Amino acid sequence: MTDLSAERIDEIVDSIAGKRQGDISLIELLGLSKLMIESLQSLIEAEDDELGGEVRSIARHIQRTQSELSRIPPRELTESVLPEADGDLHEVVRSTENATQTILDSAERIMSASAADVDAYRQVVDEAVVSIFEACCFQDLTGQRIRRVVDTLNYVNRHVAYVTDVINGADRTGMTMPTRDGDGLLSGPQTGGDALTQTDADSLFGTPPGNVVSFKT
Amino acid sequence: MALDMSMPVLVVDDYKTMVRIITNLLRQLGFSDIDEANDGQAALEKLRTRKYGLVISDWNMEPMTGYDLLQQVRADERLSHTPFIMVTAEAKTENVIAAKKAGANNYIVKPFNAATLQSKIESVFNN
Fold it and tell me: I want to staple B26 with a disulfide (CB 3.0 to 4.6 A). Which of A5, A16, A216, B31 is the partner?
C-alpha cells in the first residue's frame, strides 16, 4: 500500500469533507483506512490491557472473598450463639423473679410471726434469714449469665466487622477470623437439660478421696 | 474424724456477695472462724500463712481459678491434706470428674441451700 505523507492525508481528508476538490485513488483511501485502523488498534490494545487487568483484579478479589466467607461457620450466629444468649437472658429474668419472691416471702414470714414465744419467733427468723441468704445466690449466677451475653455481643460485633472487612477488601494482614472465647472446662451456669443437678454431681463424685486429716484446735 | 466447728474455714469466691452468703450460712451452721479470699492466688497466700481446716472455693475466678487452686493445694506437701469443697456454677459432667480427679473432697452445684452445704461438709469429715 502507498505510504501517505501528512500533507497528502490532509488533502484526502479535506476532499472527503468537501472542503477541496481533488482526485483520490482507491488505493490512497485504503491506505488511509489502514493507517486509521493501525492507530486505533494500539489504543484498543492499551485499553484492553488496562480493562483486562481491572477485570482480573476484581475476579481475584471475588475469589478471595468467597474463600474467606466460606470459612465462616454457616448459621452459627442464628442457630447457636444468639439462641444461647436469649436463653441466658430469660434465665436471668426468671431467677431474679424467683429470688425476689423468696426474699419477700421470708420478710413477710418474719413480719407476721408472733414474738410472744421467743424461741418460736427466733426459729421463724433464723429459717427466714437462711432462706434469704440462699435466695441471694441468684446474684452470682445472673452476673455470670450477663457476662456471657456481653461476651456474645462482643463476638457478634467482631464477626460483623470481620465480614465487612472481607467484603470491602480491607487489608487483613495479621487478622484472623474471630472465634468464640473458650476456657477449657469453664462454661458457666447451664440451663435445663444441660445442667447437672446436685444429685447428678453426687453420683459422679461418689466417695470423696481418702487421706483427709481431721484438724482440731 | 470429727467435725470441729471452731476450725478456721477459708471461703474463696470472686463475687463478694457469694462470700457473704457462704460466710453467713457457715455461721448459721455454727462455724465461728471464717476467712475469705477473692481468687485462687489470694487464697493460696493465706493457706501458706495459716492452717485451715476447710477450704470452700468457687471455680471460675481470675487470675487463678478454684481448679488451679485445688491443684496447687494438693501439690503442696504442707497443704495437700486440707479438705477442699468446690462450690460452683460449673455443672457439667467433665467439671465434676475433673474436680474429683484433682482431689476435691466434695462438689456443690450453685445455686445451693444451707442443708446441702451442711451435708457436704459433714460428709467430708465423716468419710
Answer: B31
Count the domains in chain B.
1
The three three-digit cell numbers of residue A94, written as one number: 426468671
A185/B contact by beta carbon, under 8 A? yes
Residues from chain B that touch A188, judged by Cβ atoms under 8 A, are: 60, 89-90
A171 interfacial to chain B (CB closer than 8 Å): no
User: Model ipTM?
Assistant: 0.82
- Does A2 contact chain B (CB < 8 Å)? no
Taking the C-alpha atoms of residue A112 and residue B65, their distance in angstroms, rounded to an integer, is 44
Q: Nearest chain B residue to A202 by CA: give it.
A: B107
Dihedral sign for Cα atoms in the order A89, A91, A92, A94: positive
pLDDT greater than 70 at residue A209: no
DSSP A189: -
Q: Which domains does chain A have, with CATH numbers?
A: 6-67 (no CATH), 75-180 (1.10.287)
Range of the domain at B88: 11-92+103-112
